[in-house]
Amino acid sequence: MYIISACLVGQNCKYDGGNNEREWVVNFAKERDCVLVCPESFGNLPTPRPPSEIIDGRAVDRNGKDITEELRRGARKSYEKAETAATRAGQEIQGAILKANSPSCGAGAVYDGSFTGKKVPGDGFFTQHLKEKGIAVVTEESEGKGL
Questions:
Q1: Which of 53, 100, 105, 138 is deepest in the core (most CB within 10 A)?
Q2: 44-70 residues labelled b (16+ CB within 10 A) or e (exposed)
Q3: Residue 59 DSSP SS3
Q4: pLDDT exceeds cutoff 90 at 93
Q5: Residue 119 neighbours by CB distance under 10 Å
Q6: Rounded Cα gap, residues 144 and 140, in angstroms
Q7: Residue pLDDT, tens place only, 108-136
Q8: Which of 6, 12, 11, 10 is nearest to 21 (CA)?
Q9: Structural contact between residues 16 and 48, judged by C-beta atoms closer than 8 angstroms
Q10: Which phi and psi angles does 109 have, rounded to 5°?
């Protein structure tokens, strides 16, 4: 069982109401058992919503609102959904394909909080949660390498 960011298969849950569909991820999901999640939606954030970035370990939206707890809640709920789906299917979670640079799903790099597109080393809240569980995480930029 694989965890995939729902926006990468065309679900309109991105902060601006759109998606980040990638053909290779859609094809990957068709060929394997997967569970789709959006940690930001599971954290009860609306769609659309202001963009958010990580500043000093906290998630803050463009308006200055701290949404750290929402992202932490969304990370927990996303993992619980994936764990339940895997258990019901009699499988283990093999890995995750998540949205690059996101404050929830970024892996290896996230936006720096300046809202200028600048990136810094780091992981989003959901990625951190998965790594703590020993689950491999790649982004859509990997083209599947590392899973």
A1: 105
A2: ebebebbebbbbeeebbbeeeeebbeb
A3: strand
A4: yes
A5: 14
A6: 7
A7: 999 999 999 999 999 999 999 999 999 99
A8: 10
A9: yes
A10: -155, 145
Three-class DSSP category at 89: coil
Q: For residue 142, give the amino acid letter.
A: S
CA distance 116 to 105: 19
pTM listed for this prediction: 0.96
Report which residue type is found at 6.
A
Tokens for 24, please give them.
């290779």
Closest CA to 98 of 22, 31, 18, 17: 22
CA-atom Rg of the chain in angstroms: 14
For residue 37, count other CB atoms closer than 10 A to its CB.
Answer: 29
Residue position matching structure tokens 């679900």 = 11
Average pLDDT, the chain: 97
Q: What are phi and psi of 61, to 5 degrees?
A: -85, 170
- In the block, residue with structure tokens 């290779």: 24
**Single-letter code of the amino acid located at 23:** E
| Chain segment 28-45, per-residue pLDDT in tens | 999 999 999 999 999 999
Nearest 5°: the CA angle 41, 25, 131 is 60
